[in-house]
Specification:
Helix 1 packs across helix 2. The chain is globular, with a radius of gyration of 14 Å. It has a three-stranded antiparallel β-sheet with strand order 1-2-3, with helices on one face. A hairpin with a 2-residue loop joins strand 2 (21-24) and strand 3. Residues 7-13 have low confidence and may be disordered. By secondary structure, the protein is mostly helical. The chain has four helices and three strands. Helices cover 43% and strands 9% of the residues.
Length: 115
Amino acid sequence: MSPEFTSKSTEDNSRINREARLIKDGVAYRLDIDDVDPSRFSGGTTSCWFQYEVIGIAKAQLHGPLTRSEVLQLVVETLQCRIETLEDTLEWIAQYMALHDGCSIQETHIWPREF
C-alpha cells in the first residue's frame, strides 16, 4: 500500500502546517516540532538552519518506519516548501560544516541521498 499524505491549513500566520500527516499501512505519522521556535532563526521557517533542525528531528522520530523520501515529503508538507529546497539545504550545510570543521562532506552530512 502506498503512503497517503493528508494535511489541513493552519489558522495562524505561521507557514508550519502542524496538521500534516503521512498515512502508511494504516498508521498516521506526523512531526512533533512543537518545541522548535522558528523565530530563533533569521528568516524563520524559510531559514536553512530551521529546515535543517526540522529534518534532523524528523529523521530521529520517523526514520525506520518511514523511508528517507517519505520523511522528507512529510517535512515538505509540514513546512510547505519544495523537496529541492530541503535537498539543497542538506547539501549546503554539509559543505559549510565540512569547510568550517576541516573534514569531509561525508563526515558532516546528516542524511545523504540514496542513489
